[in-house]
Amino acid sequence: MSVPVVWVAPDLSAMRLYGASGEAVWRAPALKTTGDEETPGTGAWRQRVAEAASWLAQQRGVKRRLGALVIDPSESVCLWVRSSSLAAPVLSAQVARLIEEWGGEAGMWSVEPVYDAPRDSSMGAEHALSAVCHHDALTRLLLDAIDKRGVVPGAVLSGWHALAHHAKNEAGVTCVIEHNAETKRLAWAWSDAEGLLAGGGAGIGDLEGEHAEAVASAVMQRTAMDWMTWSSQLGTTPERAVVIGPGAKAIGEAWKRAFPDRPVRIGTPEEGPGATLAMLSQRLDEEGTEAIAVSTRLCLGRLTHRPTRKTRSRYQIAGAAALIAAIAIGSIAVWMRGRVEDWSSGAEEARAEATEILNTTWPGELQGRPTNLVSEARRMYEEDLREAKDIKLPNAPYPIYEEALRVSRLLVDVAEQTKADAPEDLLENWQIKIQKLSMDDASVRLSLFTPERRVTTEIGVRLNDQGYAKWSPVRNTAPERPTFQGNWQVKE
Questions:
Q1: Phi and psi (nearest 5°) for 8?
Q2: What is the rounded distance in angstroms from the CA atom of residue 120 to the CA atom of residue 128?
Q3: 0.70 exceeded by the pTM?
Q4: What is the spatial distance between Cα 62 and Cα 5, in angstroms, rounded to a whole number?
Q5: Exposed/middle/buried for residue 327 (C-beta within 10 Å: 0-12, 13-18, 19+)
Q6: Rounded to the nearest 5 degrees, what angle is found at the Cα of 78, between the Cα atoms of 75 and 83?
Q7: pLDDT digits (tens, 9 = 90+) for 93-121
């Protein structure tokens, strides 16, 4: 099954779609001017974008999945750039300085980095790389328009990136040359196993007449000058060539004459832009769009990873969530501030009341502002107790808490120790349950549920082991439902 791939002209004057149902071509109607306009206005360009997006979204298979969008490189240039940073503003400024003599139109190019060469120590902190410079305003408008119609391409490529895929399985550097008879242009791309290295193009005359050989030789000489420059910049040169398009035979023969030591594969006349789209569609079907979208050597990274409606929606949802969270946090902060004020006020009132009690109980004894009024009261009490002679203190309370804690631990220990010898049919329910435990200043009483008689006997023995009360079993109680009663023996 083929993944749909679309080729578009830079001015959106034409689009070619390749998919499972074959090829389809769309051509835009001529732009119209209104009033005194000599050139089409923004309204005419927007109308063309809308018509192109509508046609593309209506094609079979595209709504579900559009593998790639390929931009024709006829109005683009590939430059070798030295820059201190790969950031878009820095690269654009560096390209603008390189092309100052080209006029104001070139200064409006968007710059897409392609080849990031390893840093050379002699260059210092600079980067040396090739970059695709093109006008992408209409492309961005087209991407937004098809995005609104639910179509998002997996990757956006220049025509040079697409040509580079012809040499995917070749070792070393390959020069891919494509002849387009309709536009009378020749496009070339250098690539290795990792993708595009550099690209370019040239106008070319008729390759079907009697002068085809001379025309092909002339264009080969012109492009050879560009190739010499790129060889010095990249430090490499193509080891072979692949020529496709209607004029492939004439261009291939010109290559053989110019570079007899470099092999060339000449495609059939039918192999051209359509064959490139078919090859790209097949690769996307086999490897998925992720295989192309991961590297700027294989696609235009900034257009490929441009935010879509889904991305913007996620940002909007995240922003709304952050706003709601901020409001909630603010509300909590206001509430806590109010609570802190209440607590501070309550603390001051409690401290004033405690201070007043201390001053009333021990007139003139409270000095300064103690940090702990409880400790200060205890100190004053103990001091009075040491100095007093006729004070009779009440009896100390019975150690109820200590005895209850001892009994609880005792029951846990007995249950764990006796479980080791418990019968298998009782293991699951082997536990001691407290039915009632009561302690007051007169007596203590404990009623239990135990799994066996021997557990009851062990509890009776250990209850009187270093305890605070004297325990004894209550008569006429079942062995597994014992009750123990006792009296306090010590006081603290």
A1: -130, 145
A2: 8
A3: no
A4: 9
A5: exposed
A6: 130
A7: 888 887 776 655 555 678 888 865 544 44
